[in-house]
Structure formats: structure tokens, C-alpha cells
Write a structure and sequence with these properties.
single chain; about 500 residues; Alpha-Beta Plaits; 3 domains; 5-stranded antiparallel sheet; 4-stranded antiparallel sheet; 17 strands; FliD_C
């Protein structure tokens, strides 16, 4: 049973207020612990913000200046784009010349006579009189212009299968597309790939049953009375003359020297074409890299040099109650300042990144091995702490002259750091830095015991819990002492009243 607490009834003192004031003094060490805990949490969050920014920058490097495809972007022009279109796929060199289109590639088709089918939604046993398990084979031309010797097989039960459902299966599972026209009652079969396979480009066969034979679409039916009566149009290859060389392709879209060419129509006069680096798109990626690099080093250097206001400690809950919201915001802005000041990991990263940028890239084939050669240099203003500046005219000229040389500066791979491109070096430095920061501050999914600041926070929580238990004991002790005093005063008062009564009674 808890001791009864007696206020200042006998002494006339405000015992509650006195004990509250005494406890304020006792709480000072606890307030300092909570302030330290808050500061550690701020520091942890600021480290994580740094890691998030470095992670985003590393991804931007990977998707931008380090990717070979960034530098193969080209603008291609053709004198008649309605007949021929050309786009670069993976070529690092340019192309130019003429092309004449003699004929376009066509897909093979087979069209049946009137099938007599009235309702394509009825079962095939009803609409075509088929019985027993049916198994069909469909062979068609492949993308490379050869016939698929294996083909695709489909098995079905006429009692449950309809023409519509079978057509759906054929269209999904084979290299042909089938269409039934309810108006003419005819069935068309079209190869999905164009080209001439030097023979039948579509081969329809009944492996069991008589589906194709009944439609008179099978070349070698069992019943000779049901011989093929459909209309067959074999596929055709595209024929064209490229820079004086006449050749063919099974498709109207094909690649030559890393460029994709699409034939759209026949020509009567040669079409001229040429390509050149898409300077604007390549420049855009490099400018984005420089902008984000500048933002990163500005942020990190700002944190490293941010002033630490030692007189501004994190506010306690009691202090916040006595302040306006704007006052709290301004106070905490200074209290939080300098959490990463002079941090060795971040400082080392800044130094290493500068080395990454300005160490020449060795082993290249272009003779270009430094950023300054393509118009990127460091700001002469020392206050900007290594900010990169772009000479756009010089960079454009370098891109137009040799995009591959730009790629080697940024993305070249190599066995040593000196042989690697700047982008690869930077990503390695960023990775090492993020790993070190994570050991200090963890990440959102980390538990406290897996990183150093988290272990400190756990320790602080334990200290706070122990001290709060101690404060409860101290407060109880104060109350016991004041209660004892009140009881003593009360007894003294009672004795005084008794004596006064005794003295008064004898007069």
C-alpha cells in the first residue's frame, strides 16, 4: 500500500509546488540525456539524407554518362521519310548514302472458299460435322525468313470447341493470324512474319481428324476429293539497293551496321540519308550529371562546414510549451546545425571524388583523357569548393567530333582505377562512402543494434529509463520527508493547543 501524502495543511506551505521545483533540479541530468538523444537522432537522419542523395546521384550516373547508349544517340535524316525511315540502335559511327526500294516484303496468306459455317459460336461438331479428337499442325515462316520445321500443334474436342475459340487458340499459340468473315463465310490465314521461305510459307496439316481437310485447306488430304481449293499467296522478300548493292531481306525492318532501317514504300529515285551525333541529347545527359554533381558537393560541403551553435541545445518538452511555434522552428534550426561538421567519412569522400574527376583516364583510343579537354573544368572561385563549370560550345564541338571519346572519359571499363572512366570511379567512391555512412547511421529498415549511432541511442534509452526510475524514488522520498514534517508540525500544534488549554484553565 502506497504511503499517504499530506500537503501543507499544518505548515501552511505549498508542498506540491516545493516538490515540483525540487524535481525540476533533479530532472536536469535527464533533460540533458534527452537532448543528447535528440541530437543523435538528428545526426542519424542527416547521415541518411546524405546517403539518399549519393544513392540518387549514383543511379543518375549509371543511367546517364556511364551508359554507352547515351553516346550512340544520333539524328538520322532521309530525303523521303515516307518511303524509308532510319534510326540508330547501337552504332557508334555514322552512316550515309542512298537506298532504292524495289519491292516490299509481304506476308503469306491462304484464303478458303465458302466454308458453309453459319454460326462460328456453335461447336465444331455442329457447324462442321467433326467428331472425335482433332489435332492440327501449323508451320509458318520465322523472322529469319526460314520455315518453322517443327511447327505448332493444337488438340481440341469438336464437341466443346467452337470456331471462334479455336481461332483464338491458333492466333495465340502459332505463327499465323486467322480471321473468319461471317459475311462471306470465308476463312483467311496470314503469316505473322513477312518473307519468302522458298516454298510454302504456311503449311496446314491434320495430324488426326479432318479440320483442315473439311475446309479444303490441307495440301495433302487423306480423302483426295477434298483437295486444296483455297487461294494461296506466298510471302515475298523486300528487295532494295543499298549504296549500290542490291539485296533482299525477309522483313521490311532490318538492321545494317547498327542502324534500324524500315522500308515503307517502293521508290523511283534513290533516297539519300545521313546520320550525325544527336548533340543535344548527349549534352543534356552530361549537363544533368554536372548539375547533380554540383548539388551533391554543395550539400556535403555545406554540412561539413555548417556552424555548430553550442549554446542552442535541443528543446525539452517543457521549454517548447513556453515558446511560440516560430520561435521553436528558429531555435531548432540552430540546435540542429553542425551535426555532420568536419565528418571524416564525408570529408574523405569529397577529396576522393576530386581525385576521381581529375586523374587522366589511361588506355583510351581517342587521345582524350581529361574533362578539361571536352570543356568541363573546376570553378576558379574557391568558395564554390570544386564546382564544375561547362564550356558548352567546347563540349558541343567535342560531342560532334567523337562521341565515343566522351564515353571513354566517363564510362570506360578497366582493371585499375586509372584505366576506368570517371563515372565508374565516382560510383565506386560513392558506394564505399555509403557503406561507411550506413555503418554509422544505418537505413530506415535497420535495427538500432546494427549501426553505431543506433547502439548509442539504445544506450541512451537505457540510461533514461534508469534515471526515470530513480526520479520516481527521489520524488517519493521528498513526499515522505514533507509528510513526516507535516505530521510533526501537526503534533506540535496539538501539544501547543493542549498546553494553552491547560494554562488557560488554571487562571
Amino acid at each position: 500500500m502506497a504511503d499517504m501524502r499530506i500537503g501543507g495543511l499544518a505548515s501552511g506551505m505549498d508542498t506540491d509546488q516545493i516538490i515540483m521545483d525540487l524535481m525540476k533540479a533533479e530532472r536536469i541530468p535527464l533533460d540533458k540525456m534527452e537532448q543528447k538523444k535528440q541530437y543523435l537522432e538528428w545526426q542519424r537522419d542527416d547521415y541518411r539524407d546524405m546517403n539518399k542523395m549519393m544513392f540518387d546521384f549514383s543511379n543518375l550516373i549509371f543511367d546517364g554518362v556511364m551508359k554507352h547508349g547515351t553516346y550512340t544517340q544520333k539524328s538520322v535524316t532521309a530525303s523521303d521519310s515516307s518511303k524509308v525511315s532510319i534510326q540508330n540502335i547501337n552504332s557508334t559511327t555514322d552512316l550515309s548514302g542512298t537506298i532504292e526500294v524495289g519491292s516490299l516484303a509481304k506476308a503469306a496468306t491462304i484464303v478458303s472458299e465458302d466454308t458453309g459455317i453459319v454460326d462460328p459460336k456453335a461447336t465444331l461438331s455442329t457447324s462442321m460435322g467433326l467428331t472425335g479428337t482433332q489435332k492440327i499442325s501449323i508451320k509458318s515462316i520465322l523472322k529469319d525468313g526460314t520455315l518453322d520445321a517443327t511447327g505448332k500443334t493444337i488438340e481440341f474436342d469438336p464437341a466443346t470447341e467452337t470456331l471462334n475459340s479455336l481461332i483464338s487458340k491458333i492466333n495465340q499459340q502459332t505463327g499465323v493470324s486467322v480471321f473468319f468473315d461471317e459475311q462471306s463465310k470465308k476463312l483467311s490465314v496470314t503469316a505473322k512474319n513477312t518473307g519468302d521461305a522458298a516454298g510454302n510459307d504456311i503449311v496446314l496439316e491434320d495430324l488426326s481428324g479432318t479440320f483442315f481437310e473439311t475446309l479444303r485447306l490441307e495440301e495433302t488430304p487423306v480423302n483426295s476429293a477434298n483437295t486444296f481449293t483455297g487461294t494461296r499467296q506466298e510471302g515475298a522478300n523486300a528487295s532494295f539497293t543499298y549504296n549500290g548493292l542490291t539485296t533482299t531481306r525477309p522483313s521490311n525492318t532490318f538492321q545494317i551496321n547498327g542502324f534500324e532501317i524500315t522500308l515503307k514504300g517502293t521508290t523511283t529515285t534513290p533516297i539519300t540519308f545521313s546520320s550525325k551525333p544527336d548533340t543535344d541529347k548527349i549534352l543534356e545527359k552530361i549537363v544533368k550529371f554536372v548539375d547533380e554533381y554540383n548539388k551533391l558537393i554543395e550539400k556535403v560541403n555545406g554540412e561539413l562546414n555548417e556552424k555548430n551553435y553550442r549554446d542552442f541545445k535541443p528543446l525539452t518538452a517543457e521549454q517548447k510549451e513556453a515558446m511560440e511555434e516560430k520561435e521553436i522552428e528558429l531555435w531548432e534550426e540552430k540546435a540542429r546545425s553542425g551535426t555532420l561538421r568536419n565528418d571524416s567519412v564525408l570529408s574523405s569522400a569529397m577529396n576522393k571524388m576530386r581525385v576521381d574527376l581529375y586523374t587522366p583516364v589511361s588506355g583510351g583510343t581517342s587521345g582524350t583523357d581529361q574533362l578539361s579537354q571536352i570543356g568541363i573544368k573546376t570553378s576558379s572561385n574557391y568558395l564554390e569548393r570544386g564546382k564544375l563549370i561547362i564550356d558548352e560550345a567546347k563540349l558541343r564541338e567535342a560531342i560532334s567530333k567523337d562521341p565515343n571519346a566522351i564515353y571513354e572519359i566517363f564510362g570506360k571499363d578497366g582493371a585499375t582505377s586509372g584505366e576506368q572512366g570517371i563515372a565508374r570511379r565516382l560510383r565506386e567512391t560513392l558506394k564505399d562512402t555509403m557503406d561507411s555512412v550506413e555503418k554509422k547511421a544505418g537505413k530506415a529498415s535497420s535495427t538500432n543494434n546494427t549501426f553505431s549511432l543506433g547502439r548509442l541511442l539504445n544506450n541512451m534509452d537505457n540510461q533514461i529509463d534508469r534515471f526515470e526510475d530513480r526520479l520516481i524514488q527521489v520524488e517519493d522520498r521528498y513526499w515522505r520527508q514533507f509528510t513526516a514534517m507535516e505530521k510533526a508540525i501537526q503534533r506540535s500544534n496539538q501539544q501547543s493547543m493542549y498546553l494553552m488549554q491547560q494554562f488557560g484553565g488554571g487562571m
